[in-house]
Amino acid sequence: MATRSTQSSRISELEERIEELEERLELPHHGHDHENDAPHVCSLPVLPAREFDEGVSPDRQDAILSTGDKWVNGTNIHYYLYSSGPFGGANDQKEVVRQAFQVWKDVGMGLTFTEVSDIQDAELRIGFRRNNGSWSYIGTVALRIGQTERTMNFGWDITQSGSNGLDTAIHEIGHALGLKHEHQNPNAGIVWNRQAVYDYFARTQTPPWDQAKTDNNILNTLDPSTVGGSDWDPNSVMHYSFAGGLIDRPVQYRTGLSPALGLSEKDKEVIRRFYPAPGPTLPQLKPFQSERLAIMPGDQKDFAVIPDHSRNYTFSTFGRTDTVMVLFEDVNGDPVYVKGDDDSGFNRNARFSVRLVKGRTYKLRIRLYYAWAEGDTVVMMW
After folding, report:
1. In this structure, are residues 86 and 159 in contact, taking their beta carbons and an 8 Å threshold?
2. What's the count of helices (H) and strands (E) in the chain, helices before strands?
3. Which of 293, 230, 299 is nearest to 63 (CA)?
4. What is the per-residue pLDDT for 162?
5. pTM score, whole prediction
6. Which residues, in sequence order, are CB contacts of 46 under 8 Å at separation 6+?
C-alpha cells in the first residue's frame, strides 16, 4: 500500500508539473478542471483614438464617432479566408464562417458579402491561428490595416458547439459590420464584481488575460454617443456569457448570464437601422445640378449617376458638414467600389475626381456624420 501511495503521489506531482509547463507554453491542460470548459470569448484589438483637426468640437466628435466605423450602406464587402500558412484554416472551419455571413445576409440588410480568392481584393481578411484569440477590427477600421494583414481571427475550433461554434463567427462578423460588445452598453447598468472578473478571465482564457485586456473587452463602458441610446439586449449575439459570481446587479444575473443562441430580434433591428435594405429607384444626380441632402446625422442618401459622355467628373459636397462619399459602379447588379472620400473631423468637404464611362451606371452614396445646420448640405457633380 505504501508503494501505491508513493506512486500516486509522484503521479500527482508529475501532473502538476506538466500543467505548469503547459501554462507557460500556452498549451491546453490535459486535466479536468471545470473552468477549462469556460466559454472562449472574443478579444478586440486596441487601436489609438481617432484624431481630429484642431478646433473640432466635442459634439462634432461624438457625432462622427457614433457612425464613423460603419460601412456606407450598399457596399459589397469582400472577404478572404486563409487556407495555408500560419493563419490557414481547414475547410470545415471556413464553412462555418461562410454560414455566419449567410446568417447576417438573411437579415435583409443593405450590405452584401462576396468571398474572394485573392487577398488583394478583400476588405476583410480572416485567419484561423490557434491560441491567438478570436477577434475582429470594428467596421471600417479594417480599411486602415495593411492589405496582407488579418482583420479577423478565430483562435479555436469553431466547428465544435461547445466552443461557441457558429455564434463565435456571427459575433466576429458583427464586429466587422461595426457592432461593439453589448455587455459594455452604458445603458446596461451592470455592476460588476471587478476582482472576480479579473480573476476569472486570468484563469480561463488562453493566454490568460491581464487587467487591461479585461477592462477593454468587459468592464469599460462604451461612449454613450457610440450606441445611440439603444437599450441593453442581454440576448444579443454581441453579448458574452458570464459565469455566476461576476455580476452583482441586476440581481437576476448573479448566478450567471447566458444569451440565447443566434441573432436576437434586437440584433436584427439594429443592423437594419444602420444598413436598410435597398429602396425604390434612386434620384439621378446630373452634371451642374446641385442636390440637397436633407438628411439627419447618421443617415445616408443615394443617387444614380448615368454619364452622357465618357470623361473625368468631379463630385463634391458643399456646406459645413462631415460626410463620407463613395462612388460604386453597378456591374451586373453588384456594387463595385470606384472612389471615395471621408472628410469627417477635418475642415474641408468630401471631394474626388474620376473618369466615368458613357453607358454604364454608377451609384453615389453619402453618409452624413454631422451638420452645423439642418438641410444646409448639397452635393454636385460637374
Report:
1. no
2. 7, 17
3. 299
4. 64
5. 0.84
6. 216
Whether a cis peptide bond, with omega within 30° of 0, leads into 250 is yes
Residue in the block written with cell 458547439 = 161
Q: Would you tell me how many other CB atoms lie within 10 Å of the CB of residue 252?
A: 10
Note whether 311 and 319 are within 8 A (CB).
Answer: no
Residue tagged 468637404 (cell numbers): 349
Burial code of 30-69, b = ≥16 C-beta within 10 A, e = fewer? eeeeeeeeebbbbbbbeeeeeebeeebeeebbbbbbbbbb
Q: How far apart are CA 227 and CA 277, in angstroms?
A: 21
Strands 124-127 and 76-81: parallel
SS3 225: helix
Question: Which residue from 141, 138, 173, 169 is spatially nearest to 155, judged by alpha carbons?
Answer: 169
With cell 461576476, the residue in question is: 246
All 3 cell numbers of residue 134?
Answer: 478570436
The C-alpha cell that represents 172 in the structure block: 466576429
Asked if 339 contacts 312 with a C-beta cutoff of 8 angstroms, the reply is no
- What is the secondary structure of 50-91 as a DSSP string? PP--TT--HHHHHHHHHHTTSPPTT-EEEEEE--SGGG---H
Distance CA 364, CA 74 (A): 10
Using 50 as the pLDDT threshold, list the residues of the chain that sit under it: 1-6, 8, 12, 16, 18-36
Q: For residue 126, which of 102, 111, 108, 145 has the smallest C-alpha distance?
A: 145
Half-sphere exposure of 218 (CA within 13 A, CB side): 25
